[in-house]
Amino acid sequence: MNRKKWIVNECNKDIAAEIAENCGVDPFAAYLLVARGLTDEFLVESFLYDTDISDPFLLPDMEKACERIKSAIDGGEKITVFGDYDADGVTSTALLYSYLFKNGANVDYYIPDRAGEGYGMSEMAIESLKERGTSLIITVDNGISAIKEVEKAKSLSIDVVVTDHHQAGDVLPDAIAVVDPHRKDCDIEFREWAGVGVAFKLVSALANCDAYDLLDEYGDILAIGTIADIVSLKGENRILVRSGLSVLNESYQNGTLRKGLKALIDESGANKNMTSMSAAFRIAPRINAAGRMGSANRAIKLLLTDDTEEATLLASEIGSANSERQSTESGITESAEKYIESHPEIKFARVIVVDGENWHQGVIGIVASRLCEKYGKPCIVISESGDIAKGSGRSVDGFSLYDALSYCKDILTQYGGHKLAAGLTVETKNIDKFRLLINEYAEKTEAILPVLRLDCKLNPASVSLDLLSSLSILEPFGAENPQPLFGLFNMKITGIQPVGSNKHIRLTVNKNGVNLPVMLFSVAAEDFPFTTSDIVDLAVRLTQNEYMGEVKVSIQVKDIKLSAMNDDEVQKSLMLYESFRRGDALSAEQKKKLLPDRDFCGNVYKYLRANNGFGAGEEILCYRLGLKENKIATLKIALDMFIELEVINYVNGKYFLPGEQKKVVLEESVLYQSLLN
């Protein structure tokens, strides 16, 4: 069920007015801060103006880590920074390697191959490093679960210092030091760093200087890595990203930005003022693509190179890898959706688990994210390769994937991650068993309803550059501090214009005599489910757009729905439908409520025949038929029965009537009979 309930944040206007006056904040920005739960001056000032970066030695084992690393530097020992192939791991590796190299260490780095080795340390990699002469491994963005691998290193007389930010298990690796803010014995106020943030804390401890002095040199890649890993942009992360972006933009303008990062920014087309949003959508995916579609070593080299020509070539190569990633991702997403739609037992499960042979492991996490958004529930995508399968999952707020995988640990070879994103390895023969087990866990948890949270309702007449500029104090935007999302309610559609070779739509909407142009991206005109004169609610974001020297506010639509449809009633009906299709036990009253009678089915069929089918979704079809929201479930069942009886076809989200019409008996439908029993 991907229909989201829209919730508008509540705000005490009196408190917002006090904060605006006492904290010197624009009244509209103060309103948004209060709506987001920052209801006293201390919280607001801490969020907006805090500049304190915590003492790195508050992290457990930091002194031990520094002592061993300094000893290795002084003794000329071979140190290997053991990283990861995603953007967080790449920036972590580049940051720590750069510092150690600059300070005279005999250092190299190692990034495991995603396809051949998978995530984290492996005994094979450790044996390889032994042959290279490594006597000290420092992990970044991995290592907290490498119990056996650290033991293997010890057996080969290699010391290990672990730095990681993932959840720590009950047993820690027997390393020289384990620096992870999520250790159970770690008692610090802020602990939500990305892997690159923990690496920066290590460098701060090694340098034993003001962290801001280090930000001048490492803030750019620290900001990129933190944004890329989608960790909270509150607390210290907000400080690090804000400072890092400032360093990045200033150095870009004055020509001192590291050559590789400048080349990548230019290749991406984001060569204006870099924000957290442009970093997240233009830079991070390209760094990730290097490891997804080949070797992440290309991205490391890019961040470390001081040669302009090499930087340009690497940036171009990584840009091509990103295009290849997009194409591969689209193909697998299409295959996964086709499989899900043809297997109701998977589609209607509480957790979708879909698997395929030799799906590219570099993109299955992105595919899982796409499916999670489409179906509004946790999704895990598994790629089979012989007897072993590897999966990646994404979740929704309120359902911890890490906890769910922990419940299934007895049949998993390996797993790890966070609440909203996780990975796993499982024997291919156990995939079906895993699917059952994780849904058994989900059945024991409270049902999660997809929610779209709006910061506030917006008066169309108030949209202006001044309003937009007042939001800048809230930046940088990211996890737990999202770019503001506003609601434009009861807007009449007065114009629908295809743009960009019909890849996008420009709408004109009107309320109280105010016309607003709004953009809906990646939707063709023929796929737009609404018509002129429809009254709709719009969830929008505001951005600044400059064209031919003129600066305007760009209004971008993130979601749209009919104003007349009640969210609560829609979700109740959809939940009941999913429960029925999932095979849950329903009461006689619920079954009666769902059962479509002959007149109901007849009216639906007549509408479809008169309109040559329908492709705008069941909620809108319900509205066009003049039905109440609580009839959406009944409507969906009637449509499912039509498909079962081959009265209509359903392809790519659209209902079609076949060339030949035939008479059918509703009672012959298996779905119909299941509601009678």
In a few lines, what is going on in this structure?
The chain has 677 residues and is an alpha/beta fold.
The coarse silhouette is globular
Total strands: 20
Low-confidence stretches: none
Strand content: 15-25%
What's the mean pLDDT score? Answer: 94
Q: How would you classify the quaternary structure?
A: single chain
What is the CA–CA distance across the termini? 25 Å
The biggest beta sheet, please? 6 strands, mixed
Sheet/helix structural class: alpha/beta
User: What's the gyration radius in Å?
Assistant: 27 Å
- Amount of helix: 40-55%
Q: Can you count the helices?
A: 25
Note down, in words, how this protein is organized.
The chain is of the alpha/beta class and 677 residues long. Helix content is 44%, strand content 19%. Strands 13, 14, 15, 16, 17 and 18 form a 6-stranded mixed β-sheet that branches. Strands 3-2-4-5-6 form a 5-stranded parallel β-sheet, sandwiched between helices. A hairpin with a 2-residue loop joins β8 (379-385) and β9. α5 (87-102) packs across α13, α9 packs across α12 and α20 packs parallel to α24. The mean pLDDT is 94.
Write the layout of secondary structure elements.
Layout lengths: L4 E4 L4 H11 L3 H9 L5 H9 L12 H14 L2 E5 L4 H16 L3 E5 L12 H9 L2 E6 L7 H9 L3 E5 L13 E3 L15 H13 L3 H18 L6 H20 L4 H10 L7 H17 L4 H8 L3 H34 L2 H4 L4 E6 L6 H12 L3 E7 L2 E7 L6 H7 L4 E6 L3 E7 L3 H13 L7 E4 L1 E2 L7 H5 L16 E14 L4 E8 L2 E7 L14 E13 L2 E13 L4 H16 L5 H7 L3 H13 L7 H7 L7 H13 L4 E3 L2 E3 L13 H7 L1
Parallel strand pairs: 1-12, 2-3, 2-4, 4-5, 5-6, 7-8, 13-14
Antiparallel strand pairs: 8-9, 9-11, 10-11, 14-15, 14-17, 15-16, 17-18, 19-20
